[in-house]
Each structure stands twice: as structure tokens, then as C-alpha cells.
Amino acid sequence: MSSTELPFVPPANMLPKVAPVRVAEGERLRSVGLPGITLSVRSRPPAREGLPPALYVHGLGGSSQNWSALMEQLDDTVDGEAVDLPGFGDSPPPDDADYSITGHARAVIRFLDASARGPVHLVGNSLGGAVSTRVAAVRPDLVRTLTLVSPALPEIRVQRSAVPTGLLAVPGVAGLFTRFTKEWTAEQRVRGVTALCYGDPGRVTPEGFRHAVEEMDRRLQLPYFWDAMTRSARGLVNAYTLGGQHALWRQAERVLAPTLLVYGGRDQLVGFRMAQKAARAFRDSRLLTLPEAGHVAMMEYPETVAAAFRDLLKDTAASDGGAATSSTGSRSSTAGQGS
Questions:
Q1: Its GO CC terms (predicted)?
Q2: DSSP-derived 3-state class of residue 54
Q3: Which of 155, 146, 154, 153 is nearest to 261 (CA)?
Q4: Looking at the whole model, is its pTM more than 0.90?
Q5: Among positive and negative, which fits the CA dihedral 249, 251, 253, 257?
Q6: In terms of CATH, what superfamily is 26-334?
Q7: DSSP result, 140-163
């Protein structure tokens, strides 16, 4: 395949019938058609009218379901929506097969522009953290605050446990992996993902594990699943090599929105040592470190992340009202986690 040739991806009406995406009690799922993309959007009705809008952006291989626990915690604080990035969750591939960080950021911007809900409290995890950083840098008018959970920002020394994920970006590796793992069950795959992403896999409930297996089974039936994974991984690796104004760390420095950074001490994909660098890069930041958390703190410790998010909104509102709060520098805290 040449560098300009796009893979054939069947249109939505030609895709095989697969099981429907799970929608938790109290949630809604809708499809939003935009130029070049169709996005699936998950929402939970707010506890009352007039709450400020929030948008959640998932990581590589994830979906809007990754935010269900946090959305429920915050339904009395924000009017939240979670988007399935193109090619993930229940969103079909983008028409142009662009899975770069810029392509995903463009999808988020198109959705925010079309919904006219901005500026929003933007929340991103992993790949979604890199995407959200770019959105906040290039369209500050759309972002009121920024919350990043283990954002996938460039690291000089990548953790050994993160190397296999990065190798997905290498041409041919995904094909080899799929052939090597063709006999793996959905349950085996979920156990592997859980062990990689959670600080303590034991925190996953039997019900949560069953739902994850059902979702994995559904995704493996999609003809574009591995293409979306591979191209998004490649887009992330390519973003790490960009210099100048498009460099992610340079864009982090341009973010004007008050920023909450959440890092897990047991994260096997994003180095915990990057927490302090991120706190210095984002000009108006606060840092929450969770020693027992892994890569998806919002799923492991939703109550703790929700409390830090509420504090961010409270301080931002006080600053808007003229309270004497600092607009520069960073604050950090380490939270203990209970059951």
C-alpha cells in the first residue's frame, strides 16, 4: 500500500451486524453526523438544569464507556457528554482514515463547534489527553478547564511495559499480533488489558469484567478494529516526533485553561516521573498523584478524581469572581485511596 492509498473501509450500512454497545442505566447514546465523520456520544442527564457542560475523551483502544463511573460521580456538577473518537466505541471510521492526533482533535473541535456547548470542561485520558491538550492549545475559546488523566505526552525514556503498545505503530506488527493471538478469547484479552491498565486489577468487579468481555467480543467483529488501533498508535508516535509549534509539550505551554493533572503511581503506560514535568509545562496547573492507581484513575478511583475536579471548578469559579487566587504556578497533592 502506498503512503497515499487509503484502506477500504465499508460504509456504515455495509458493516456486519454486531451486538449493540452497552448503555448503563441512566445513560443515553446518540449518533451525531458531522462533515467527514459520524460520532457516537454518550451522556447522562444532569441532576439539575443549568450545570456547565463537560466533554470526556477516551484513550487508545478505549471508548466513552471508560467515563461512565466518573460521569455518574459528577452528574451533580456538570452536564457531561463522552465522545467515541472515530473508529472507536460505536463511532465508524473517519472518511479520510486520518487517525492522527490532529485528526482526532479536529473531530472533537467539529463536535464542539456543532453543539455550541463551549467553552466546556474538557477531560481526557491517555491518547485523549494528548488530543485534549491540542484542542485546548489551538482553540482556547472552546475550553473552560482542562483535566488530563495520564496524558500521553512525549517521553524520552518510555517504560518497557509501554513498548508493545508503541510497536503497534510499526507497519506489519498489528498483522503479526493478530495472527499470533487469533486463538485468544475475549476474556484472555480483557485480562491482559486490565493487568496493563489497572494499578490493582482486583478493583474490577465481576460485573465490570463481564461487560468488558462483551465489549471486547463486539469490537473484534468490526472489520476496522485493528486499523483504527494501528493508525491511532502511529498517529500518537508521530506526534511525539513533531517539533516547533506543533510539538505537544510546546502546545501544553500554550494552554490557558486552568488544568488538573492526574497521574497514577502504578501506571505502566505513562511514566509517573512525567507528572512534575507536566505540572511545570501547563501554566495554571494542579497535580493529583495517586500512588496505587494505574493508567485509568477515573475508572479505578472515580470518587477521588471527581473530588479533585470539583475543587478545580470551585477555584476557577472563585477566580472568575475576583477572588484572590493565583493564576500561575502549580499545586500538587497526593491522595490516599480507600476502597
A1: membrane
A2: strand
A3: 146
A4: no
A5: negative
A6: Alpha/Beta hydrolase fold, catalytic domain (3.40.50.1820)
A7: GGGEEEEEEES-----SS--GGGH
